[in-house]
Automatic annotation (TrEMBL):
The keyword Membrane does not apply. The keyword Electron transport does not apply. Pfam families: TetR_N. Keywords: DNA-binding, Transcription, Transcription regulation. This is TetR/AcrR family transcriptional regulator. PANTHER family: HTH-TYPE TRANSCRIPTIONAL REGULATOR LMRA, TRANSCRIPTIONAL REGULATORY PROTEIN. Residues 11-71 form the HTH tetR-type domain. Residues 34-53 bind DNA.
Amino acid sequence: MSKSENDAFVRQRQQIIISAAKICFSRSGFHGASMADISRESGLGAGQIYRYFESKEFIVSETIKSIATSWRVFLQDNLPKQSSTRDIIDAESPFWQDWPYQDRCLLLEMYSEASRNQSVREVLAQEEQLLIADLEKAFSRQYAQVSPQQRNERIQFLLMLVDGVACRAFGDKNLDHHEQGRINGILTHHLFG
């Protein structure tokens, strides 16, 4: 096997393990899921897993990086397309269709872990910086007439909004759509007025 084939095989195995870990972590949390759970879910023996990851902590770390990157890419792709906050607030709207419930659970677990783990906070901060830079570029093209401060305020507001909605366990089915429209009008006027 050539070096490039071997590298591809290693990456494939690592991805299998991370995918299995995501399932286990979404069910039991980063600290509740065991290596035996990950082994069972991946179909790989514990010895095989340790060939690709030196410890469970390393699997947690790589899983967090994967979740954070996926979250950034999801937001990069979807936030610039939103002209209204209504779809963001409604957890059942088309805005959220490409962000599965399992990933929402993992995101909540990741934010919880960040509250006690400096390295997780650093991963999240790095991904957020990349996201803000990308959103600034997209919004500069989309809202060229708006000041950089107003664009930054919109970005910060949207990030707080999506984080809040993503972290809710259940959506509020009794949302007042008239009130949502009124709030959206105020925000649009304030941020782009």
